[in-house]
Amino acid sequence: MPPQQGSARMRQRTVLLVGIAVLLAALVLAVVLASLLTHGRHEVSPQMLKWKDRGTTKNLQEVILGRCYNYITAQHPELGDKDCQKIWESLKDAFIYKNPCNITPEDYQPLMELASHPIPCNKSLFWSKTGDLVHRYTKSNQNFLTLEDTLLGYMADRISWCGDPSAPGINYESCPKRSECESNPGSVFWKMASKMFAEAACGVVQVMLNGSVEAGAFRSSSIFGSIEIFNLDPDKVSKVHIWLMQDIGGPQSECCSGHSIQRLISILEERNFNIICEDNYRPVQLLQCVHNPDHTDCRLCTNST
Amino acid sequence: KWKGEGTTQNLESIVIGRCYNYIRIVNPAVGEKNCSQIWEAFKNAFINKDPCNILPKDYELFINLTLHTIPPNKSLFWENNQLLVNSFADRGRRYMSLGDTLFGFIGDFLNWCGQADSHGLDYESCPTTLECENNAVESFWRMASITYAQHSSGVIQVLLNGSAEGGSYPQPGFFADYEIPNLHKGKISQIFIWVVDDLEGPDLESCGIQSVKTLETRLKTLGYDVTCTDNNK
Fold first, then answer.
1. Residue A232 lies in a domain
2. Is the pTM of this model over 0.90?
3. ipTM of the predicted structure?
4. pLDDT tens digit sequence for A56-74
5. Distance of residue A55 Cα from the nearest chain B Cα, in angstroms
6. Is A114 contained in some domain?
């Protein structure tokens, strides 16, 4: 073969080889990049803040929407004009993409306005350290409403949520505990909702407290003691009825004459409220007796009087 | 058109929301479920069909997708006393009634029906059971009751209302027609019947007489170890 054609062919071959090598390199690079990007999307973004409490509840949107529709459709048709989609959007906007230690009451203002509704007089039931019992009671006696029986409380009960400045804006891994920062989405929500619930109360209001707690039935640090009693309106609320419940067969740490109750009574009297305290309010005690039917406190009279 | 209430508004959001509410919060022990798929299976049981021709087996896929274990000794059957059952069962923690299972939880207190030749839900009206038995809601509860009975085991509780007019043990009734025939005798150790009167209600029936006696006899003939008590404390 003439040397000129040979070197041309050699050049062609080299170009071809180089071209293939470049193509291969590009392919490998593309695969590596693709796997890195998709892998990154499934993992927590490395920039998301890490906290000590459980993260946002999975499927938060479906749960909130479902609860909202369940409440206004199946349980309280008089609230039929509520827009659940808008309510969800306003909740999401309150915390998404925000630093979860920087939440303010203003963030929740649109949600509070959209979801609040009037509470009938004489039905408000406050509680502290009696969460289980009080909700069993309202489930069986619809004459009383706790915050968790209102639309706002019903949607948010036992759920957690918080945001993060980096995408996707919601942190499903962890959320701040109160001890890490007070202005977190959950704490701010419940403080605001509790304040509004107290402001809306009228007529006779009830509060269920726990007389078997060592630290005292009434505590100034609780939401009831720090927010709700100070937001009751003396012009609307005629009386406060305290139900002081002790565990069946449990410690009788406090009763109506106890120290913390006396303190509560004096705070309320100073604000011009009428107060009654009742030890072991019978209707609620009967519910406690479902779990302890043989205890002496649970025996019913067999002879009619 | 029909005599009964129409489909509950926002049914899809409620069903999907209840499904996630159950698996995330009420009873996360049941594990991961695909709630969108569950809604589709539920809907396809009755959509685009004659609303008087829906059968329990039309819900088979729905049941398969929502099925989970019912812990032994926790089954609680009942007739005519739903509010009492809810307090007694304590949201599935003491007992797990049908309404505390995922499939029961989804359907409780809701109403629904479709129409022939249309993919839409009928929001105007739905047939009552008097108008036609094989309607969407009736067949749902029949299927759910059958399934609940089939998966019950250990000690079984039955809560009856001693003040109910028409008898504490209604026949026909869900317990009589769909639950008892589907109990698996080999899995059940004992049956406790509780006859509870309404407070200040009449004491119309008790153990050993009338319809309760019919029930006791039936279960004993089937070979079950049966105990009956009046007015649970």
1. yes
2. no
3. 0.85
4. 999 999 999 999 999 998 7
5. 12
6. yes
